[in-house]
Amino acid sequence: GITTEFLSDKPLFEHIVDEFIEFVKGAELVIHNAGFDVNFINHEFALCGKNLKIQDICTITDSLEYARNKHPGARNSLDALCKRYGVSNEHRTLHGALLDSEILADVYLIMTGGQTKLNLGGTTSHSDTIKGLSIDLNNLPPLKVTLASEEDEKLHQQWLDKHSDGGKKPFIYNQYFSTSV
Questions:
Q1: Of the CATH numbers 3.30.750.24, 3.30.420.10, 1.20.1250.20, 2.60.120.260, which one belongs to the domain with range 4-139?
Q2: Is 172:163 a contact under the CB 8 Å cutoff?
Q3: Domain map of the chain by residue range?
Q4: Rounded Cα–Cα distance for residues 86 and 106 (Å)
Q5: What is the pLDDT along the chain (181 residues), one digit of tens a residue?
Q6: Active-site residue set
Q7: Partners of residue 176 on adjacent β-strands
Q8: Are 55 and 38 in contact (CB under 8 A)?
Q9: pTM for the full model?
Q10: Which among 3, 33, 114, 130 could disulfide-bond with 109, CB atoms 3.0 to 4.6 Å apart, if both were Cys?
């Protein structure tokens, strides 16, 4: 665990609070049992005289809440999720923030169907394995790009018009894309 001796040469939160805010601003933080950590962070902000909440500067995703929705009635501790998804946590003997975050990254990506591995160590391997499935990302064929025909674009625009109540309730899609019909 964490001891007073271990913390003796670490900076106080008040000394790095501005750097921390810049680091997380606009990011998505995936936190297991987020309410617990969010309350601590917000309390530390208040102690530093910062009139803000972490959830106001970044997106908070609670992986425990996600797991409970995905697996209702099941154990959803980080250890239980490691076992369920085949993520090794053998080297985890005590709670440690860095190790837990690396384990959570692997679990969350598998649980949500995202990438199969997130390498936080600086070296990247393009060959990942999940429960016996091996995918070599270096040898994939090039993706075929198929553009919509003019007729497809017209039909799409008609669908958008119909479902946006004649343009009275425009889709957010319209802010980023427009068809040339």
A1: 3.30.420.10
A2: no
A3: 4-139, 141-181
A4: 10
A5: 678 998 899 999 999 999 999 999 999 999 999 999 999 999 999 999 999 999 999 999 999 999 999 999 999 999 999 999 988 887 766 667 788 888 999 999 999 886 544 455 544 444 444 445 555 666 677 778 888 899 998 988 888 777 776 666 666 666 666 554 4
A6: 95
A7: none
A8: yes
A9: 0.60
A10: 114
